[in-house]
Amino acid sequence: MMASLGKPALDDSRRSMGSPKLKGRENAKDTLCRNVTIYGKCRYEDKGCAFNHDPTKFSAMHQTDRFGSPESTALFSVGEVSWVIASIRELTYMGSSSNSSSKKGLNVDSPSFTPSLLSTNDTSSKKTTTISPKAASAAPFLPKSVTSRSNTSTPSIRQETATPDWSVPEIQDFVPQSFDTSQVVRKAPAIIVSLQGTSNGVLASAGAYDPFVTTPTPLATPGSVTHQVQTSPFSHDATALGGTAFFSSQTNFQQPVQYHLYAPIGPHSQNIMGYQRNVHDLFLPNNFREELQKKAAATLQTLPNSSLPAHVDHFHSLVPLDLTHQKNATIFGYPSWIYKAQSSKDGNYYALRRLEGFRLTNEKAIRSVQAWKRVCNGSVVTVHDAFTTRVFQDSSLIFVMDYHPLSKTLAEQHLAVGNRFQTRHITHVPEQVLWSYVTQIASALKAIHSNGLAARIIEPTKILLTARNRIRLNSCAIMDVVQHDTQRSITDLQHQDLVNFGQLILTLGANSPNIMHNHGKAMDHFARAYSPQLKNSALWLLNGLQKDQERNIDIFINGISSQLISSFDSALHLDDQLTSDLNRELENGRLVRLLTKLNFVNERPEYEHDRQWSENGERYFLKLFRDYVFHQMDAQNNPVVDLGHVLTCLNKLDAGIDEKITLISRDEQSCFIVNYKELKKALESSFQALMKPTRRLH
Ligand SMILES: Nc1ncnc2c1ncn2[C@@H]1O[C@H](COP(=O)(O)OP(=O)(O)OP(=O)(O)O)[C@@H](O)[C@H]1O
User: Fold this and answer.
1) Is pLDDT at 287 greater than 60 in this prediction?
2) Would the ipTM clear 0.95, i.e. be above it?
3) What CATH topology corresponds to 585-691?
4) Domain with CATH 1.10.287.3700 in the chain
5) Which one of 105, 307, 420, 618 is at 20 to 30 Å from 134 when CA atoms are compared?
6) Angle at alpha carbon of residue 375, lines to 372 and 378, rounded to 5°
7) Ligand 1 lining (C-beta closer than 6 Å)
8) Which is the closest atom of ligand 1 to the Cα of 411?
9) 398: which DSSP letter?
10) Residue 476 class from Cβ within 10 Å (0-12 exposed, 13-18 middle, 19+ buried)?
11) What CATH class has 292-559?
12) Ligand 1 centroid to 463 CA: how many Å?
């Protein structure tokens, strides 16, 4: 049937761009009106239709007319012929006429008809259009007037060639879910409407909430399918090649380039061909994935049967984070403990720092935490709240802070302090790493000081290393509550921050927690190991290079601006790296959604009291498709476990392409040839059925 479509498609020479017949209407009376051919009569016969409405006059011609073969008559008598088919003819004709404007009709040299791969080339633009094989179910053809036609965005060349009674809206191809449907709507709104009822379930359900509808994704890089689908000379669809034997010439055979749909842009291996992919290219780098998964596992860790309170205010599931069980009151003046806990208010995880035995004497003290909530800086562990509690059987002060899973303190990382990492060999901190710490702490202090606050504690056990070279001050706000009655001015405290900052740099540079006991030795060591700029920066922080010199964090930041720029550049590089890593995973979410839909339908034991629902109708194809994707056996009867095959099939399904596949039932008694477009439609409609609210039985 598709092959027979070709001949009538080519007979519409009156719309040919190159045909002299098109130039005027003088030959219209000699041409049988198509409405008569298709519908038996023309509604516009008495309303100005210029064509001839007497079929008997043409019966003789039918025998000889090279365009009006008997096949064409049979075709046109099919009641379901629609404007889509009309367009097929028009487009096909345009394709052939543009190649040779002088050719008026078919002869033995005429190219074979290609129903689903049609192209039209004019001198100014190149345009390729494919036709949905579901053309038969498209809306019936409705003649339009010239005036309405002229309102459309149809290219002018077609307006010239159109006739008032036979004008056809420009056909828009099937638009898979992954295409930018907004563009389609803009270009041909009328066609979207007609597609809704036909092949594209996504468009049909456009108004409904569907958690599985993914954002439009370009399908591929070079050679990708745009909303005007490119014709592929390598299509697997034999009918698309006009019935020519696709495999007759092996030399012509090439891979279907159009279908390399799984094309995340990512790092490229040198030793593989351009079209090849490593499995690793499709996922996050292993070490990064492992790091994230470990962090997730640490976040979700629980401690069953612990002796800790079940609830501390609205926090529950406490897990201690400090692994040394020694009471240490040197920093805050009270022994401190830290726990991971989950909030029952928002479900997030927090770090709770508890100061044991703290008695609140002044309400104002705890209110000072409010000011810390305004400090929003990437190098400060955010403080959320503070409250007192008796659930630990004492009077405790609790600070609620951001939880950073699997973080270490700088002391654990560089000074071998703390049980966990004592066996690790402590290495010299490279200058670049130290500069990175310096710039981050400078940024933290800038944010703190400009809020009229002081960090008050800048020391290695209270700075968290939350990722590679990423640090955060971790004890902010605590001293403001604990030592609320202190008489020191804020300027004084901010100066002290600078001194503490300088000491931290020297301590880390020396890899020794006690180096500051011998200031001279610390400086000597530092001068040998690091650049003069870093040494001078540390000296400036400690006491200023000149006496009575004004010192504040802004001046310091000006002094290290070149380092700030290089830190900023490193941050941008990291950002690029993360974006590239993210790109690798880009398509995976889409495929997970697709798989989820498929599995909602496949093997469903019952739907609306029908135990056979998932085995019947279009669901049966989906079941066989599942077998085709996942349960194939090779010639040696080994299971085919090929991720490439799975990804290719799923991507083709997602795109709903025309390629046909053979599905065979498990008992090998039935065999179906379906294309991905039909499978996609089946999946969409089956899933939409599941989304329907269930009918309640009374
Ligand atoms: N906000 C946080 N998020 C995640 N983990 C944290 C957080 N704060 C601290 N930790 C973890 O708790 C551990 C102990 O922190 P803490 O500040 O008590 O250090 P410490 O070395 O035990 O100091 P001290 O001897 O003063 O208690 C750290 O190693 C860190 O892994």
Assistant:
1) yes
2) yes
3) Helix Hairpins (1.10.287)
4) 585-691
5) 105
6) 130
7) 321-322, 324, 328, 331, 336, 338, 351, 381, 401-404, 407-409, 411-412, 418, 461-462, 464, 474
8) 21
9) E
10) buried
11) mainly alpha
12) 9
